[in-house]
Amino acid sequence: MDTGSDFIRPEFLNILFFQQKNLVIFPYVDMKHLHALEIFTAGHNVVDLESTALNNLKEIIEFESSNSYAQNPTLFFISNTGKEQLQQIMELDGIRCIINSNENFSDLANGSKFIFFNKKHGQFINYEANDEELVFENELISHSENKELLQEQIQKIKIAASRIFRELNQSGNLQNLPQILNDYEKKYWNSILNFTGNYYDIVIPDIKISDLKVKPQKALKDFSDEYEVLISTNKPIGKEFIQLIHEYRSKKVNPQHLELEELYNPLRLYNYLRNHHWKQGIPQDFISSWTRMEISGYNLTDTDQEEFNLIIEKLKLPQNSVTIVASRQGLESKEQPMKLDIPDTIPSLSTDWNQFEQWLMNRIDNLEDIIDNSLNTSPEKVINSTFSEITSFIYSEISDLNHMLSPYRKESMSALQPQNNHDILNQKEKILLVDTTNILNLDKNEKGELKISNIAKVHDAVLVLGYIPKMWADASMRHHVDNKKQYEKLLDRKIIHQTPAGTKADIWVLKIAKQKNYKFLANDLYKEYRKEFGKEWISMNRLTCVYDEGDFIILEK
């Protein structure tokens, strides 16, 4: 019986990762076992294709390869392929795929672009490699206790290759190669350089590795335990911290010093800051900004304040450096009678936003007071769990409303002013264009499909910042979602807007943003469009996003 571990072999690591070749496996292998090879596909977006269900397989692969919306190239897992289909696929240029079929394809094994493997006999048809040629691959696999650690090692090589590629683009030489590959023995450097050339399809300049001197580096500390305390103790406080460290990075850290993961992975970024910028601990001014919750505008409850103090105690932060902003509940005496001074007339949402927002916030405040009064003055009346569950639900809803309205609240709480015509016209500036397919790539399911459920999360994350989301996707996205029927409903309801036929979402979003002076949300660097739209304009108007523990967090400049 086949198992996924059958494919964790140095040969497959060499073929798929280091050489960036395509692989044909026969006879039939269960897809869940075949997907074990996905560990060797770092730097690619994986897409599953079932040949028997597609009459135009070649056209789909051709279109997806040349019109991908993602920054990374696509690698296809293609199952149940027929001989004629395989021959057509082998004629295509610039594609990456792993193909499986029950048919014997030995007679098609000519050339080296597609490597053929007979699973039944455990033999490669057109590939040979001895142990001496696979020393690095054997080293990586044998020193990884599990697949997760192996995947981490492979991803680390991919990041090193990204730095090499960036170094060549910027300086045209590899003088800094010893610093980039300092974690690896020199005998493995050529393997990493070859991978870089194969992945980016570039020619690596000749370099005499033996002449390069390696400077010893200090061992970096791991601050994962610290990060866990900061993020997991309290969700709103943790989300604020993540947004703050990315804001700090954008203002005070040279991006050339960061690896790719350190740009978008909050844990990796925190470790970098603690090792390089915050060696003596988190700066007091940073902590002070954090406690004010200025980015989210979230109001700390009594429980939040207690948990904030718990974080401070656990991390041994100086107590006198922190002043936690009290919430409304903490400022009001529980003995005071409730003031129900809410106007009976509901202000207009379309013409008197400030007054409507104030009216709604007053309603929320009074609802909080009613609950607090019930729980604090008559706890014996809380007889059954049903009331407690309702109370918990209401508190949760209040928290979400506070969080959602906070960007508007900061602008309007100082005075109740009716909007003038200029304010109403400026509401259009609150629209945020979203390259939906690009952002959803931050979190995919086990099959490599985009999750429909994440569309609502991204939509809500935009609302929290005070923007009105307009979410765009190109036509190809329907082939990559985990629920096509639900996706069609989102299109019908205009929650997702589809770009014109043949138009990619990235260029479409840029054109609309430029024409209407909107900001846009995407993690794409838009290198190919910098000449047309201007690097500075893209940088000023682009918001980026990170995915952390189930949440999409948008980073504002």
SSE topology:
Layout lengths: L9 H9 L3 E5 L4 H4 L10 E6 L6 H10 L7 E6 L3 H8 L5 E5 L13 E5 L4 E2 L10 H8 L4 H25 L5 H4 L8 H12 L23 H9 L2 H18 L7 H5 L1 H11 L7 H9 L9 H13 L13 H4 L21 H25 L7 H28 L8 H5 L5 E5 H5 L12 H12 L3 E6 L10 H9 L3 E3 L6 H12 L2 E3 L8 H4 L1 H7 E7 L2 E5 L2
List the keywords.
single chain, alpha/beta, Rossmann fold, six-stranded mixed sheet, 12 strands, globular
Give an overview of the whole structure.
With about 550 residues, the chain is of the alpha/beta class. About 45% of the residues lie in helices and about 10% in strands. The protein has 24 helices and 12 strands. The protein has helices at about 10-20, 30-35, 55-65, 85-90, 135-140, 145-170, 175-180, 190-200, 225-230, 235-250, 260-265, 265-275, 285-290, 300-315, 330, 355-375, 385-410, 420-425, 435-440, 455-465, 485-490, 505-515, 530-535, 535-540; strands at about 20-25, 45-50, 75-80, 95-100, 115-120, 125, 430-435, 470-475, 495-500, 520, 540-550, 550-555. The strands form 2 sheets. Strands 2-3-4-1-5-6 form a 6-stranded mixed β-sheet, with helices on one face. It has a 6-stranded mixed β-sheet with strand order 9-8-7-10-11-12, sandwiched between helices. Strand 3 (about 75-80), helix 4 and strand 4 form a beta-alpha-beta unit. Helix 10 (about 235-250) packs across helix 13 (about 285-290) and helix 16 runs antiparallel to helix 17. The model is unreliable at about 325-345, about 375-390 and about 405-430 (pLDDT under 50).
Number of helices: 24
Percent in helix: 40-55%
- What average pLDDT do the residues reach? 79
Low-confidence region ranges? 326-343, 377-389, 406-428
Q: Enter the CATH topology name of the largest domain.
A: Rossmann fold
**Global structural class:** alpha/beta
Reading off the top of the CATH hierarchy, the class of the largest domain is best stated as Alpha Beta
Number of domain units: 5
* Strand numbers in spatial order across the main sheet: 2-3-4-1-5-6
- Give the name of the CATH architecture of the largest domain: 3-Layer(aba) Sandwich
Total strand segments: 12
The largest pleated sheet is described as: 6 strands, mixed
CA gyration radius, whole angstroms: 28 Å
The percent range for strand residues is 5-15%
**Shape estimate:** globular
**N-to-C terminal Cα separation, in Å?**
54 Å
